[in-house]
């Protein structure tokens, strides 16, 4: 009998039982809540006369709808009535049921996928769910972390269990050393470009290899964050010294003898040497260059030294039509070099790239320089209030402001058009977020996904440029 994968180990440890229809019941350790997908779930509980099954398994914060300026105004700063109602409803539900929440004025407030790890509420071996697709972020800690829909949010609140079918195992093996200023964001975009947005459908990805081991926890979170963009149910990285060093001493993490017991178990959370995977992708990290998406899907990505594709070179008519449609929407021409494409806005933030490591890289690129005059807005939004405070204490915020960036409070911001930070029609944006779908950042807006270093370089140049040549 072959050994177990990391996914198999966490799944087996949480399997409650198998149903007659082939679905499984899995116990959930941590449930993260925000203001957009929880109101209907709480209302469903009340209508059914139920209460949350395990209060201390839940942690909440508003993030999608909160404005990133005028934060001192609190709820009064939310001008959209629906957004305000959602945030107020989260406040009321958490207060009624005694659920821990970092509200809009709490210094710990932030994007839910930033505050979980930051607080040590995300721990190895956990099963974690949230009504948000990028819950896969938490898999960087060897947790099985998945996004769920609103009906499942209600089900988990009521039962502390999730019904689903077991996924297959997909390993992405990345060895070698990433070149300087080529980051985890470039790596995950290259992976999605290689396998497509449906490439890992029905699977959980485990990222392995020397290049993965060399990543910081911030880098691993970026990698796992966009696993969903590759079609995967979740992404995971095994536990090592880097994992444990990040977690030790965090507020929700165990301490003393409990830490010692936990660490002994956590160190087993790696795939066995003889574990079998259903699918595999192998990449050489040293061959990668900074990546930029050119189209309207994360799989439409090229290196900074490449050009937009030509529909005439497509494999079939369907592919040619998809390329043509994307080029038209993005206002690009076939064979147009991506480097040199002019921009209107730059957004640095989101649950993909808004942590302190990301901001330090940005500061290193823009220090002593100025945002180009053609850039209407260069926005930097930290992932949490604690990241904001740390960036200010380190002097990073001063560098951003001196360069002409707009330094904001924590929130999802321009990642998606659910708050005041959004693109106008046909505005072109270099974004460190995770999705470039049509209208994602605003009606008819044009989004190019890049790393923080590439976004910073583009803000200074006013157009796409290889950060390795200007940093």
Task: Please outline the helices and strands.
Elements (H helix, E strand, L loop, with lengths): L5 H9 E4 L5 E4 L2 E4 L5 H10 L9 E3 L20 H17 L2 E2 L10 H8 L7 E4 L13 E4 L2 H10 L1 E4 L3 E8 L8 H12 L7 E6 L1 H4 L3 H9 L8 E3 L4 H7 L8 H11 L12 E6 L6 E3 L7 E3 L13 H14 L14 E4 L7 H11 L10 E4 L4 H9 L2 H8 L2 E2 L20 E4 L14 E4 L2 H10 L5 H4 L1
Parallel strand pairs: 3-4, 3-6, 4-5, 6-7, 9-10, 9-12, 10-11, 15-16, 15-18, 16-17, 18-19
Antiparallel strand pairs: 1-2, 2-8, 13-14
Helix pairs in contact: 2-5, 6-8, 12-14, 12-15
Describe the structure.
The chain is α/β, with parallel strands linked by helices. Helices cover 32% and strands 16% of the residues. The strands form 5 sheets. Strands 5-4-3-6-7 form a 5-stranded parallel sheet, covered by helices on one side. Strands 17-16-15-18-19 form a 5-stranded parallel sheet. Helix 2 (39-48) crosses helix 5 (150-159), helix 6 (184-195) packs parallel to helix 8 (217-225) and helix 12 crosses helix 14. The model has no long low-confidence stretch (mean pLDDT 97).
């Amino acid at each position: 009998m072959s050994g177990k994968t990391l996914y198999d180990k966490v799944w087996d440890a949480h399997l409650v039982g198998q149903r007659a229809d082939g679905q499984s019941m899995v116990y959930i350790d941590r449930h993260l809540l925000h203001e957009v997908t929880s109101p209907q779930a709480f209302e469903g509980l009340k209508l059914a006369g139920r209460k949350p099954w395990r209060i201390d398994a839940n942690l909440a914060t508003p993030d999608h709808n909160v404005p990133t300026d005028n934060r001192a105004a609190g709820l009064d700063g939310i001008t959209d009535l629906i957004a305000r109602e959602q945030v107020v409803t989260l406040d009321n539900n958490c207060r009624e049921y005694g659920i821990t929440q970092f509200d809009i004025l709490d210094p710990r407030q932030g994007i839910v996928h930033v505050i979980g790890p930051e607080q040590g509420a995300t721990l190895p071996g956990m099963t974690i769910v949230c009504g948000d697709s990028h819950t896969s972020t938490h898999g960087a800690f060897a947790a099985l972390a998945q996004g769920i829909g609103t009906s499942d949010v209600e089900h988990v609140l009521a039962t502390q269990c999730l019904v689903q079918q077991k996924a297959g195992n997909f390993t992405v093996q990345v060895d070698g050393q990433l070149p300087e200023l080529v980051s985890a964001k470039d790596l995950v975009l290259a992976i999605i470009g290689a396998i497509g947005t449906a490439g890992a459908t029905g699977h959980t990805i485990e990222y392995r290899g020397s290049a993965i081991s060399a990543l910081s926890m911030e880098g691993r979170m970026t990698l796992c964050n966009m696993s969903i963009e590759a079609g995967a149910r979740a992404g995971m990285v095994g536990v090592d010294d880097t994992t444990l060093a990040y977690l030790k001493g965090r507020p929700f993490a165990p301490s003393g003898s409990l830490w010692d017991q936990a660490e002994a178990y956590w160190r087993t959370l790696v795939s066995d040497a003889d574990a079998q995977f259903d699918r595999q992708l192998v990449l050489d990290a040293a061959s990668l260059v900074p990546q930029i998406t050119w189209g309207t899907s994360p799989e439409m990505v090229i290196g900074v030294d490449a050009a937009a594709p030509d529909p005439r070179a497509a494999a079939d008519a369907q592919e040619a039509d998809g390329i043509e449609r994307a080029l038209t929407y993005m206002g690009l021409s076939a064979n147009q070099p991506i480097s040199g494409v002019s921009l209107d806005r730059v957004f640095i933030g989101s649950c993909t790239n808004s942590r302190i490591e990301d901001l330090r890289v940005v500061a290193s690129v823009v220090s002593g320089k100025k945002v180009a005059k053609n850039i209407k807005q260069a926005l930097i939004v930290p992932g949490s209030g604690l990241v904001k405070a740390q960036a200010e204490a380190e002097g990073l915020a001063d560098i951003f402001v001196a360069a002409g960036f707009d330094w904001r409070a924590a929130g999802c911001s321009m990642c998606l058009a659910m708050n005041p930070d959004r693109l106008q029609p046909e505005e072109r944006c270099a974004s460190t977020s995770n999705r470039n779908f049509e209208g994602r950042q605003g009606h008819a807006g044009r989004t190019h996904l890049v790393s923080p270093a590439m976004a910073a370089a583009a803000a200074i140049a006013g157009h796409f440029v290889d950060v390795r040549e200007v940093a």
